[in-house]
Specification:
Length: about 290
């Protein structure tokens, strides 16, 4: 097999952000409201801080307004819910996210339910997930939305294909499996949602024309699990020790990249594949929030 097409998430995300920046210029010239994203960060978990900072930075680059709300890890659930209510009622804010994970004493689901679905740019609220299932306008959460954008922008034909999604999380695998089966483009696939209890996972995966892997286990998918010419989307991202690197680690995905790349027609690299698309998706949802609130 010749070398696969690399689905370049970094370049695609940069292109989406440029398109959004142009839309902001257009909005401003017409005297419209510039999208405003707020991000709530509870505590000081390093990874969460990095993610939230890059979300805020992306807003600045595009020309969106942004607010970073940093709260102490000891904040009570009641006080966090009061903050959420305040954000729901603040007309200057179009959309917001509460970065997860939250400290253990706070029930994440209670917080998700308290977010106004019209400002839920993460698409985590049950109302938005329900709308997604029904094919109604909604916020599709960042990772599934980013994958759809990659498939669309690389003109990958999905209609009638067998799509296997491995992993059934609420924010990636489950919505992805629903979206790929819908009568849309990308979509119209015959979908299999595989997970830890799937029997003959190797055979199931190897029957996929489009294989979307979100299991959260490094190097889980081997070459023998991939059909010749398949499209492979790797959602995983893991740090593994690597003494040859300056910082002592490198990033790998859920897919054994080198072996699988020799077999498939298209593949997302890690890093630089699905990851960068997630922030671009959040920005797209923030712009959409203005429309949904009208
Ligand atoms: N933590 C890791 N990814 C995400 C995300 O997409 N949204 C929120 N709110 N928290 C996260």
């Amino acid at each position: 097999m010749s070398q696969p097409v690399i689905l370049d998430g970094k370049a695609t995300a940069a292109q989406i952000k440029e398109e959004l920046a142009n839309q902001v210029i257009d909005i401003k010239s017409k005297g419209g409201k510039v999208p405003h994203l707020a991000a709530v960060l509870v505590g000081d978990d390093g990874a969460s801080r990095t993610y939230v900072n890059s979300k805020v930075k992306s807003c600045e680059k595009i020309g969106f307004d942004s607010s970073l709300i940093q709260l102490d890890s000891g904040i009570s659930e009641a006080d966090l819910l009061a903050k959420v209510k305040e954000l729901n009622e603040d007309d200057s804010i179009d959309g917001y996210i509460v970065q997860v994970p939250l400290p253990e004493h706070i029930e994440e689901q209670k917080v998700t339910l308290a977010i106004d679905p019209k400002k839920d740019v993460d698409g985590f609220h049950p109302e938005n997930l329900g709308r997604l299932v029904l094919g109604l306008p909604t916020f599709v959460s960042a990772t599934p939305n980013g994958i759809l954008e990659l498939l669309k922008r690389y003109n990958i034909e999905t209609e009638g294909k067998h799509c296997v999604v491995i992993g059934r999380s609420h924010i990636v695998g489950t919505p992805m499996s629903i979206l790929m089966g819908q009568n849309k483009n990308p979509g119209n696939c015959t979908v299999t949602l595989a997970h830890s209890r799937t029997k003959n996972l190797k055979e199931v995966a190897a029957s996929a024309d489009i294989l979307i892997v979100a299991v959260g286990r490094p190097n889980f998918v081997t070459a023998e699990m991939v059909k010749e010419g398949a499209v492979v989307i790797d959602v995983g991202i893991h740090r593994i020790e690597d003494a040859s690197k300056k910082n002592g680690f490198r990033l790998i995905g859920d897919v054994q990249y080198d072996a699988v790349a020799n077999k498939c027609s298209h593949i997302t690299p890690v890093p630089g594949g699905v990851g960068p698309m997630t922030i671009a998706s959040l920005m797209q949802n923030t712009l959409k929030a203005i429309e949904l609130r009208k």
